[in-house]
Specification:
Elements: H1 2-27, H2 34-42, H3 46-152, H4 156-170, H5 178-236, H6 293-304, H7 308-326, H8 337-360, H9 367-389, H10 395-414, H11 420-451, E1 458-459, H12 462-471, H13 477-481, E2 486-487, H14 493-512, H15 519-546, H16 553-568, H17 570-581, H18 595-622, H19 640-655, H20 661-684, H21 693-711, H22 728-739, H23 742-748, H24 761-782, H25 790-814
Antiparallel strand pairs: 1-2
Helix pairs in contact: 1-3, 3-4, 4-5, 5-6, 5-8, 5-10, 6-7, 8-9, 8-10, 9-11, 10-11, 11-14, 11-15, 14-15, 15-18, 16-18, 18-19, 18-20, 19-21, 20-21, 21-22, 24-25
Pfam families: EXOC6_Sec15_N, Sec15_C
Region (Disordered): 260-280
Function: Component of the exocyst complex involved in the docking of exocytic vesicles with fusion sites on the plasma membrane.
Length: 815
């Protein structure tokens, strides 16, 4: 029974499960029914399930049949209505087909028009797109065309700016076109082309300024000269309402013409030099001679291209090379002033250009670079001037060179260059100028002295007198009182030399102008140069004249007179220098003129030459002496040569009346002493080995003639018998032998008041031996075969005894 219950329970469970599955099949989508059916077949009761399913199907069929029976009449009615609608639908279909056919026939033209309209709209859209693309491309093409035009017209900086706009603004908008790619590929080439062309322009510019440096410098120096002249006028006569603009005001800012951001115009780079406001004529500036636009363009182009440093280095390197060429002076520069002028013009032109570049560009050149170039130029210029100026021997050329150097220095100083070394070098050239002046004045003095007649200047009228006095400061009240004609004591070379000294002072003063020296320095320079002129040049000229072989005593006398007057004029030269330098001679460290010493030395040399000349004349007369030392005849008059000599001396000393008394006295005493010495030498010369007492008597007559001349006082101022003392040695010697007073001589020898104090034992012995030889020779001839006569033997013994005693005196004196 329990088994039955269990089977019944299982059956109920199975029936409930099958019911669930059936509900699930009814409610589930057909696509998802698979798992449900799988669960049926997985179980063991699928047969019973099939029975259940058949039962359920039959139930549903019965329900469908019931429903159809209920709705059958409505279905029949609907079918009837549907058959009626089919007929009407066929009629409607026919009408629609007919209408469609008519519509198709009628709308065929419209379709064609619409098709045409479609094509037009397509073309219009394409055209609009094309126009849009062209609007993007046209600016690119226009910019490229503009670039080409700018390249063709050599407007390279605007071309570079155009290239930048093209590359960064326009080309990126149309970069997908092939022609744009070609342009992009061509841009580096265009940049290089612009770079190369601008560099070529720069090279042409450098060549241009090299060629125009001379003209630029000439113009700048002319302007500096005009400025200096105007400044001098202002100093002399102040101008009202006129102002000279400085060099810094001479620059006019360049007008910009490039439509881009170019800082400098490529068309206008001139510099105008502003003249005085009241001047109507415009003087072109030195920089107007060169077009600076190439260097500006090249600078801007290289700056834009990022190669500014390369450009600066290249420019500076090339300019340094040009500087070295400019600073190399021509080998013949020293021959003419034009050589120096061209040299200076080139240097000034070079630095005017560099100064202009410095002030009109930003950093292309800087002050350090300019200063470096100037230091090099200054050292080379000074070295060249030292070398070439040393060859110059013309003072006028040296003076012109100095003025040119001053103008050169002033010109560059205006542009801010230090020129102190140039002025220091001018002080060196000043010494050379003084030397050339001294050489020139040596020739002038030589011509004056050679052409002078060495005669007092005659004047026949008051006009001539004033003319001479106007040329030379001379005052003599006694001469003024004398009637015309009359004579100045000095010859023509005195006023000529005096005036030439003043001309020399003027020449020295000319060199000191514009050297920025103080009055004291100028005064010192003039005085030192004048001292050199007096102590060296004039002194040498006077010495050369005095030492000439053919100069006469008259000329020497006139030279002494002339130098005396020139010596007196030195104070007037002092005053002359003081007047032109405004430096009082009492000022500390003021150099004094040595003219007094110069003229004293010349006068002393002339005096010595007079003494020497007189002695030479005396010697010439003595050469005419023809003594017969063996004569036995006693003469009664002086020798002819001596008479002529005395007459010459009298006439000569008569000319000495204008000489200072001491000079004439010294000349006269010197002549007498030389005459006495020469006569003594004539008497004692070794060639005369024998002489007779008769010859000694004749010699004594000649000496008496000389003593008579001395007593006559040929030159005033001697004390009594002073001039005769020149012949005292001869007189005592002759008296000793003629009077044969050996006992007195030997007895009184060495006594301060002895009669024959001036007779030297050696001289006496020499003359005694000559007489002894003559006596011995005469005795041998007269007594060839016999003994000496007694008196002759006694005299010979006396001579031997005296000679022996004289030798003893000589020996004792030497011991």
């Amino acid at each position: 029974m329990e088994r039955g219950k269990m089977a019944e329970a299982e059956s109920l469970e199975t029936a409930a499960e099958h019911e669930r599955i059936l509900r699930e099949i009814e409610s589930t989508d057909t696509a998802c029914i698979g798992p449900t059916l799988r669960s049926v077949y997985d179980g063991e009761e699928h047969g019973r399930f099939m029975e259940k399913l058949e039962t359920r199907i039959r139930n549903h069929d019965r329900e469908i049949e019931k429903m159809c029976n209920f709705h059958y009449q409505g279905f029949v009615d609907s079918i009837t209505e549907l058959l009626k609608v089919r007929g009407e639908a066929q009629k409607l279909k026919n009408q629609v087909t007919d209408t469609n056919r008519k519509l198709q026939h009628e709308g065929k033209e419209l379709v064609i028009a619409m098709e045409e309209l479609k094509q037009c709209r397509l073309q219009q859209r394409n055209i609009s797109a094309t126009v849009d693309k062209l609007m993007l491309c046209l600016p690119v093409l226009e910019m490229y065309s503009k670039l080409r035009d700018q390249m063709k017209t050599k407007r390279h900086y605007p071309a570079l700016k155009t290239l930048e706009h093209l590359e960064h603004t326009y080309l990126p908008q149309v970069s997908h076109y092939r022609f744009c790619k070609v342009m992009v590929d061509n841009i580096p080439k265009l940049r290089e082309e612009i770079k190369d062309v601008s560099m070529s322009d720069l090279k042409d510019f450098l060549e241009s300024i090299r060629k125009h440096s001379d003209k630029i410098g000439e113009t700048a120096m002319k302007q500096a000269q005009q400025q200096r002249n105007l400044d001098n006028i202002v100093l002399q006569q102040p101008r009202i309402g006129s102002k000279r603009k400085s060099k810094k005001d001479a620059y006019i800012i360049f007008d910009t013409e490039i439509e881009s951001t170019s800082p400098k115009s490529e068309q206008d780079s001139g510099i105008l030099d502003v003249e005085d406001e009241e001047d109507d004529e415009e003087v072109p500036g030195a920089q107007d001679l060169v077009d600076f636009s190439p260097v500006y363009r090249c600078l801007h182009i290289y700056s834009v291209l990022g190669a500014r440093e390369t450009f600066e280095n290249y420019y500076r390197k090339q300019r340094r090379k040009q500087a070295r060429l400019v600073l190399q002076p021509p080998s013949n520069m020293h021959e003419t002033l034009d050589g120096y002028r061209k040299y200076f013009n080139q240097i000034v032109g070079f630095f005017v250009v560099e100064d202009h570049i410095l002030h009109t560009t930003q950093g292309l050149v800087n002050r350090a670079y300019i200063d470096e170039l100037w230091e090099m130029a200054l050292s080379k210029t000074i070295a060249a001037l030292r070398t070439h100026s040393s060859y110059c021997s013309d003072p006028n050329l040296v003076l012109d060179l100095k003025n040119l150097i001053v103008l050169f220095a002033d010109t560059l100083q205006v542009y801010g260059f230090p020129v102190n070394q140039l002025f220091d070098m001018l002080l060196e050239i000043r010494d050379q100028y003084s030397e050339t002046l001294l050489k020139k004045w040596a020739g002038i003095f030589r011509n004056i002295l050679d052409s002078d007649n060495y005669s007092p200047i005659p004047v026949t009228s008051e006009e001539m007198y004033k003319k001479v006095v106007g040329q030379f400061p001379f005052q003599d009240i006694e001469l003024e009182k004398q009637p015309f004609p009359k004579k100045f004591p000095f010859s023509e070379f005195v006023p000529k030399v005096y005036n030439q000294i003043k001309e020399f002072i003027y020449a020295c003063l000319k060199f000191s102008e514009d050297l920025h020296l103080s009055s004291t320095e100028v005064d010192d320079m003039i005085r030192k140069s004048t001292n050199l002129l007096l102590t060296r040049t004039l002194s040498n000229s006077l010495q050369n004249v005095i030492k000439r072989k053919n100069i006469g005593l008259t000329e020497l006398v006139q030279i002494i007179i002339n130098t005396t007057h020139l010596e007196k004029s030195c104070k007037y030269l002092e005053e002359f220098i003081t007047n032109i330098t405004n430096v009082l001679p009492e000022t500390v460290h003021t150099t004094k003129l040595y003219g007094t010493t110069t003229f004293k030395d010349a006068r002393h040399a002339a005096e010595e030459e007079i003494y020497t000349n007189l002695n030479q004349k005396i010697d010439q007369f003595l050469q005419l002496a023809d003594y017969d030392w063996m004569t036995g005849d006693l003469g009664n008059k002086a020798s002819d040569y001596l008479v002529d000599l005395i007459a010459f001396l009298r006439s000569t000393f008569a000319v000495f009346t204008h000489l200072p008394g001491k000079v004439a006295q010294t000349a006269c005493m010197s002549a007498c002493k030389h005459l006495a010495t020469s006569l003594m030498q004539l008497l004692l010369e070794a060639e005369v080995r024998q002489l007779t007492l008769g010859a000694l008597q004749q010699f004594n007559l000649d000496v008496r003639e000389c003593e008579q001349f001395a007593r006559s006082g040929p030159v005033p101022g001697f004390q009594e018998d002073t001039l005769q003392l020149a012949f005292i040695d001869l007189r005592q010697l002759l008296d000793l032998f003629i009077q044969w007073d050996w006992s007195t001589y030997l007895a009184d020898y060495g006594q301060p008041n002895c009669k024959y104090l001036r007779v030297n034992p050696v001289t006496a012995l020499t003359l005694l031996e000559k007489i002894s030889r003559e006596m011995k020779d005469t005795s041998r001839k007269n007594n060839m075969f016999a003994q000496f006569r007694k008196n002759e033997r006694d005299k010979q013994k006396l001579i031997d005894t005296v000679a022996k005693q004289l030798r003893g005196l000589i020996s004792s004196h030497h011991s």
